[in-house]
Specification:
single chain; 545 residues; alpha/beta; Metallo-beta-lactamase, Chain A; Rossmann fold; 4 domains; seven-stranded mixed beta sheet; six-stranded mixed beta sheet; 33% helix; globular
């Protein structure tokens, strides 16, 4: 499921919720249902997409009005008027499925590439503006501030063949089974029609598709590749539904052939999911999968070919080396971009200046403290400089003030789940009203933000009942991480939830906090990279004292 865009941006991409509906502009990268889910309920004008994507979505969601859409095609650039200033958007081929594009946004918020779902082959990046592409040992002329990246297979170390190579594996598998009178191709997903087209060209036979069984696939193929479809059930090549229950369907087809004294049919599934997403395999079986250079047959007589519409980890690392963005955000859950080597090396140690685009992205106003502004004003008046010289002097003083503490104004908190750099915060609990939270102020040298932690039930009860036996230092220790720094207590005062406490930040969550999440079978949330930098700044400041 795609993530919400940060609230400092005037547009949404592939999300259709009450929050994203408040955005002034909406973009749809492609027509897969997980990217258009909720569009019929929470759509708003304008929705920018390719013409093919619009046509496919309108077929899936007939309640939608055609007038909601504005067309942008591959290679086209539009200037979008906005109340916060006009910005440019350019569409590039995403190498994912028919009509799929990546969007490059350029405006006062910075330069942002949103890949949607993509397969970042060399030809995709070759079409990007040259100023954003680096060369060997050389940074790009203009660096991207952010890349919102499809990290679907970011955890897998498997080297995936190109689409062309995978299609050739399918064709060789068919050649190697000449006795199979029927060949079932499990290619009912938008984006797999390339396999059907090449099989049709190679063997000179059309594909039988039963419209009643696969109405959406049939209608999509009628738009993209109508020349390969036949209604003759005697055709050797037939399309088979992959979802759901492909193994049961395959066993039924094999049993039917045996019952009729026919040769065993050939069943081929071109997909990468079987290679990277089966957690029940032994380590040996997993290694066999990853090292295979050709089709593999499973226990259900299905031949699997690693045909991927998403980038492998190797391709993601290669693309990031060329693009060299300052920040990478995963568009897939669990912040998988944080596991990429490029992100670990290049993004976590980024220094955040007061004029960094990240503050705009997160809708945070950063200002130089009043006393610093006064010193700038006094210095300019006493020097008797003209206007242009005064501006230069102010910039010089501001640069000197950069390491000092900055004032950050956060937008008013919303009652709904917060939208962060990595999208809507995911706790995984529908009702968390029973959790009493303590507010923690993260006081850093260059910034000040807030996050929440949870106290143990025992300490919450003592504070709620004003029990004098409570040891405040134990409460503070409860919030410390494995390598604690000294926590300073600013104030403790009861509130409607029982407690409000300000303490110095720590680098990660404490043991009690992690145990609380685990006791509810909920994954411990990962800290955001933006906060990690702020925490590291805090630690360095304390060491220097």
């Amino acid at each position: 499921m795609p993530i919400e865009m940060p609230r400092g941006l005037p547009f949404s991409v592939d999300t259709w919720t009450p929050s994203s509906k408040k955005k002034r502009h909406h973009f749809l990268t492609h027509a897969h249902k997980d990217h258009s889910q909720g569009i019929a309920t929470h759509s708003a004008f304008p929705i920018y997409s390719t013409r093919l994507t619009k046509t496919l979505v309108l077929q899936y969601s007939p309640r939608l009005d055609d007038s909601l859409f504005a067309t942008i095609e591959v290679g086209q650039t539009l200037i979008i008027d906005d109340s916060d200033g006009a910005f440019r958007v350019t569409a590039f081929d995403a190498n994912h499925c028919p009509g799929a594009v990546m969007f490059l946004f350029e405006g006062s918020f910075g330069n942002i590439l949103h890949t949607g779902d993509c397969r970042l082959a060399p030809e995709c990046l070759q079409n990007m503006p040259e100023k954003y592409i680096g060369r060997k040992d050389k940074e790009p002329k203009c660096r991207l501030d952010y890349v919102f990246l499809d990290c679907t297979f970011g955890r897998s170390s498997m080297k995936m063949p190109s689409k062309h190579s995978a299609i050739q594996q399918v064709i060789r598998c068919i050649w190697n089974h000449p006795d199979a009178k029927v060949v079932y191709l499990a290619c009912d997903l938008l984006g797999q029609e390339e396999v059907l087209v090449e099989v049709c060209k190679t063997f000179g036979s059309k594909i039988f598709i039963q419209e009643a069984n696969t109405p959406e696939s049939f209608s999509a193929l009628m738009l993209t590749s109508p020349q390969i479809i036949t209604m003759e059930s005697t055709s050797r090549f037939r399309m088979l539904n992959a979802f759901p229950n492909l193994p049961e369907r395959a066993k039924a087809k094999v049993a039917e052939a045996k019952y009729n004294f026919q040769p065993e049919p050939l069943i081929i599934r071109p997909s990468a999911q079987w290679y990277v997403c089966d957690d029940e395999l032994s380590e040996l079986e997993r290694q066999i999968k990853q090292r295979s250079n050709g089709p593999l047959k499973d226990q259900f007589d299905i031949w699997h070919v690693c045909y991927s519409m998403h980038s492998s980890r190797e391709e993601l690392e290669w693309a990031l080396q060329l693009l060299a963005p300052q920040w990478v955000v995963s568009t897939t859950p669990n912040c998988r971009a944080m596991e990429l080597d490029y992100v670990k090396r290049r993004c976590f140690d980024m220094k955040l200046a007061h004029n960094s685009h990240i503050w705009k992205l997160l809708d945070i106003d950063v200002e130089v403290p009043t006393n610093s502004a006064a010193s700038i004003e006094n210095s300019s008046h006493t020097s008797g400089l003209d206007d242009s010289s005064q501006v230069k002097a102010e910039e010089t003083v501001r640069r000197k003030l950069t390491p000092q503490k900055l004032q950050i104004k956060l937008s008013p908190q919303s009652k709904s789940s917060p939208i962060t750099l990595f999208g809507r915060a995911r706790i995984g609990i529908e009702n968390v009203s029973h959790m009493h939270e303590a507010k923690v102020s993260l006081i850093g040298v260059s910034s000040q933000v807030e996050q929440k932690v949870t106290l143990s039930e025992e300490n919450r009860s003592k504070i709620r009942n004003k029990d004098e036996s409570i040891d405040i230092r134990l409460v503070v220790d409860e919030m410390r991480c494995k390598n604690p720094v000294e926590a300073e207590i600013d104030e403790i005062s009861p509130d409607k939830d029982g407690i409000a406490m300000n303490v110095a930040s720590t680098e990660c969550f404490g043991k009690s906090f992690r145990n609380l999440y685990r006791s509810m079978n909920v994954p411990v949330p990962q800290p955001l990279p933006s906060l990690v930098e702020l925490m590291n700044t805090c630690k360095r400041a304390k060491r220097s004292l």
